[in-house]
Design a protein that fits this description.
With about 500 residues, the chain is an alpha/beta fold. It contains 17 helices and 24 strands. A 7-stranded mixed sheet has the order 14-17-18-13-12-20-21, sandwiched between helices. It has a 6-stranded mixed sheet with strand order 9-8-7-10-11-23, with helices on both faces. A 3-stranded antiparallel sheet has the order 5-6-24. Bound molecules: 1,4-dihydronicotinamide adenine dinucleotide and magnesium ion (MG). The site of 1,4-dihydronicotinamide adenine dinucleotide has 27 residues, from helix 9, helix 10 and helix 13.
Length: about 500
């Protein structure tokens, strides 16, 4: 087991170097000089410091982004050249994959093997995918008829224009990947950006910013302000120089973002919480459904907005699936992310540990049965045992609220109509899972589920080509795929009388 930060080869150089924010191509301290502590959540120890930027720093970064958007080399760059830079960012991520995975593991706690296999290549793939879009953003021509202008002729078409300066606020559960999801489409469309990573996990965004400069991104196109949500984040969300805010995080803060943006009616996309139903029918192939249901919740320690946290199991196989998922949970290797054998790391912060164990205690008090797990693990760091709960229902906070930890509540059901109604009984609508060998049943249930993504006989499959986002209080808009391009462009209709 790797026990010291020094033993980590690739990330050491980066960790030793003083951290500054990126504003207009220069690395700067916060205006008032304050810093915030960066923790390794496996140790509960401070491993680094980054600037604690606030409103003044956001002002400077927004001004830089405005200048870069208005009259720099960026706005005059051909789409092809822009695409080449974005592609190069993807290449540089892959060239530095081990380093980025280690930074992510130390900062967030996730297993380095998972970061190396998922977060980092997915981030690179997002840039590669979006690089191609730079040259494929175009309007249309329209054969307009105009009944009140008989005989007149027109040439009518649309232009797709970048929305402008985008404030991007990302969370700590997939720090690098969430930054990629946001930055990729912004750059493909020709926007400029002020990015604020989460205060818990600012490191990979700073390393990514270095790589973006190496890739040839002009100064001011991407600016990175590290700092707290209530200060730097709030200043960015409400800034009059920002044309659009893109946010991923809690539903609570999502609502604050919408309020802040309401002042000047900025465009807003928000990807928020979830309490996703994962439905296992009795006819499912349980050999895949049981580990599938376990991974749906335990991947990334349950710190996934799409986590399958409400596990609906058809009555006939309830005990079998419950025992199967619990046995799977018991075998998960919980440990420090840098240990190559680790399958599940710690929660990201002391605050999240308190939050998750608080839910578990509330469930216990309310008589919810803990089948396995249910407690903090170890003396150091923020570890929680993979937990399976039985007997929770509406009115129990473990059932109603997003826990964002490795905690699943199992619920029996007896038919499709019942489970469709139950699955939708939530304020959220991010994702849902269905496990069945009966495709007719799956196809009939899919349209009934109020969710932005439905996985059938699989779970947690993400791809740069596939739009992702929520119904209801899980958010507005979609990330990834062609859909996200529309979130970063304005459509200008042009009509020329001939
Ligand atoms: P959060 O929503 O406070 O943090 C997400 C981002 O928003 C961070 O960059 C933070 O600095 C920023 N932020 C916080 N307050 C802000 C404000 N007033 N204005 C602008 N930006 C602000 O989430 P937090 O408190 O870290 O986690 C609490 C819960 O939120 C979690 O337990 C989980 O349920 C949910 N969450 C959901 C995520 C998702 O992927 N949908 C990601 C992270 C948290
Ligand atoms: Mg918060």
């Amino acid at each position: 087991m790797v026990t010291t930060v020094e033993a980590v080869s690739h990330a050491t150089r980066f960790l030793k170097q003083p951290k500054r924010m990126l504003v207009d191509g220069a690395w700067v301290d916060a205006c008032h000089g304050r810093t915030l502590e960066v923790y390794d959540p496996a140790l509960g120890e401070v491993i680094d410091h980054v600037p604690a930027g606030d409103a003044e720093d956001v002002d400077l970064a927004v001004a830089a982004a405005r200048r870069a958007f208005a009259d720099s080399e960026w706005s005059r760059m051909t789409a092809s050249d822009r695409g080449r830079i974005i592609w190069r960012v993807g290449d540089l991520i892959l060239e530095h994959a081990d380093e980025l995975a280690e930074i992510e593991s130390m900062d967030n706690g996730k297993p380095v093997s998972v970061a190396r296999a998922a977060d980092v290549p997915l981030a690179a793939d997002l840039f590669h995918y979006m690089a191609g879009f730079a040259t494929k953003i175009h309007g249309q021509t329209f054969p307009i008829s105009v009944p009140y202008a008989p005989g007149a002729q027109f040439h009518a078409y649309t232009l797709k224009e970048p929305v402008g300066v985008v404030g991007q606020i990302v969370p700590w559960n997939f720090p690098l990947l969430m930054a990629a999801w946001k930055l990729g489409p912004a750059l493909a469309t020709g926007c400029t950006v002020v990015l604020k990573p989460a205060e818990q996990t600012p490191l990979s965004a700073l390393r990514l910013a270095e790589l973006m400069l190496d890739a040839g991104l002009p100064n001011g196109v991407v600016n990175v302000i590290t700092g707290f949500g209530e200060t730097a984040g709030a200043a960015l969300a409400g800034h009059p120089g920002v044309d659009k805010v893109a946010f991923t995080g809690s539903t609570e803060v999502g609502k604050l973002i919408v309020k802040a943006a309401a002042n000047d009616l900025k465009r807003v996309t928000i990807e928020l919480g979830g309490k996703s139903p994962n439905v296992v029918f009795a006819d499912a192939d349980l050999e895949t459904a049981i580990p599938g249901a376990a991974n749906a919740i335990f991947f990334n320690h349950g710190q996934c907005c799409a986590a399958g946290s409400r596990l609906y199991i058809e009555q006939k196989v309830y005990d079998q699936v419950l025992v199967g998922v619990s046995d799977y949970a018991d075998k998960i290797m919980v440990g420090r992310g840098l240990d190559p054998d680790t399958e599940m790391g710690p929660l990201v912060s002391a605050e999240q540990l308190e939050r998750v164990t608080g839910f578990l205690e509330a469930g216990d008090r309310e008589g919810v049965r803990t089948v396995t797990g249910g407690t903090q693990v170890g003396e150091h760091g923020y570890f929680v045992a993979p937990t399976v709960l039985d007997g929770a229902g509406p009115g129990n906070s473990v059932f109603d609220e997003e826990i964002f930890g490795p905690v699943v509540t199992a619920i029996p059901f007896s038919d499709t109509a019942e489970v469709a109604a139950a699955a939708n009984e939530t304020i959220y609508g991010l994702a849902a899972g269905i496990w069945t060998t009966d495709l007719t049943k799956a196809h009939r249930l899919i349209p009934q589920l109020h969710a932005g993504t439905v996985w059938v006989n699989t779970y947690n499959i993400f791809d740069a080509a596939l739009p992702f986002g929520g119904y209801k209080q899980s958010g507005w808009g979609r990330e990834m795929g062609e859909e996200v391009i529309h979130e970063y462009t304005e459509t200008k209709s042009v009509c020329i009388g001939l």
